[in-house]
Each structure stands twice: as structure tokens, then as C-alpha cells.
Write the C-alpha cells for this entry.
Amino acid sequence: MFTSPPVEGYSLNMADAEQRNVRLLTMNPAWAEPLGEGLAAIDPWLRLGYGAQTLTRYLSAEGADRHALAVLVDETPAACLTVRPNWLRGPLLELLGVLPAFQGIGLGKEIIAWLVGQAQHHRQGNVWTISSEFNLPAREFYRRQGFEAVGHLPELILAEEAEILLRLKISPP
Ligand SMILES: CC(C)(COP(=O)(O)OP(=O)(O)OC[C@H]1O[C@@H](n2cnc3c(N)ncnc32)[C@H](O)[C@@H]1OP(=O)(O)O)[C@@H](O)C(=O)NCCC(=O)NCCS
């Protein structure tokens, strides 16, 4: 799945009524920098100790087993995600981040809907992700999208924090 480039020009809808141009695109290093800086300033990355440079490098690295994508609102980088396409009978959404100025307007929900569509297209029965246990807003967001907690992973990133493995079971289209 996710041929390269995976989603050139894919349009997302937004919950608000503004007619803005929202596109999902393969990550470009020029966008990885502001996105990395933005994510480093907010949880969960702030609390987990990920700096801007580390995140920018991570978002810039494209490999066969992991894709980095950006969401542009008009021409502004607004959100990003990284995906491991064939993780466990479905993709693993390794990172999802919407910058604060663009939260709450439906981007996260649209990104999950797109990922579910990709998985269905490839006849995969699951979408997986991981959330920090302390990240209650994200866990509520994922719950509303239909994800269920299926695993508790203590000391995965930091000794004093746990991660929660989340599964969205999907049916074929
Ligand atoms: C969590 C996050 C991905 C949600 O994306 P978003 O674009 O802001 O969310 P949306 O506008 O698409 O909201 C979708 C749904 O989730 C709910 N939701 C979103 N943020 C929420 C929050 N902080 N608390 C509770 N519910 C929330 C919305 O009310 C909406 O519910 P509905 O479908 O019943 O109407 C985004 O806020 C974010 O990136 N946060 C910081 C980083 C993070 O925690 N990433 C995820 C784990 S690594």
C-alpha cells in the first residue's frame, strides 16, 4: 500500500465552513522543520522529551517501511503523520500531530478516515496506533474514532511512562 508518492494532492474536508484548500502530501523537508518545532512544544512530545531537531529529522526520514505525510492548509503546514503500512494485518499510525492553531477543526478525524480507506482498499482488517497513557485528550479522540485499548506498554519510551496500544478493527468496504 501507499505507492510512492502515496497521496499527491489528496484533499481533506474540514469541519468548519471555511473553504480552505486542505491537502495531504508526502512530507517535504521544508515542512518537516516547522512541524517538528511545533510538535516539540506540545504534549506528548514535550513531556516525553523529544526536541525539535529530533522530530524534524524523524519527519524528514522516508523509508520503505515508514512514510511521513504532511497536511497543508492552504500553503501552511498544519499537521503530520507517519505510517508503517504493513504492521499487523493493517497499518500502524506511528505519529499523528495537529498543530494547535489547526486542532479541533476536523483534521485528525479526516486523517483517520483516510487511513481507514487505505486499509480497506488493501483489504486489511485493522488500523493500529499508540498513545501515551497520560495523553487523555488523544485517547478520547481515538476512542471517538472507534479505537479500543488492547495493550498496556510500560516503560516503552520513558521509564516512568506507559504507552497504550490502540486498535481500530475495520470491515472490508
Ligand atoms: C489529538 C489530535 C490528533 C486530534 O486531532 P484534531 O484535528 O484536533 O481533532 P478533530 O477536530 O478531528 O476532532 C475529532 C473528534 O475528536 C474529538 N476531540 C478532538 N480533540 C479532543 C480533545 N482534546 N479532547 C476530547 N475530544 C477531542 C472532537 O470533539 C471530535 O469529536 P466528534 O467526532 O465526536 O465530533 C490533535 O488534537 C493533536 O494532534 N493533539 C496533540 C498531539 C497528540 O496528542 N497526538 C496524538 C497522539 S501521538
User: Anything to note?
Assistant: The beta strands are 10-11, 22-26, 67-73, 76-84, 92-98, 126-132, 148-154, 162-169. The chain has one domain: 10-169. The helical segments are 29-40, 45-48, 52-60, 107-121, 136-144. The CA atoms of residues 51 and 116 lie 30 Å apart.
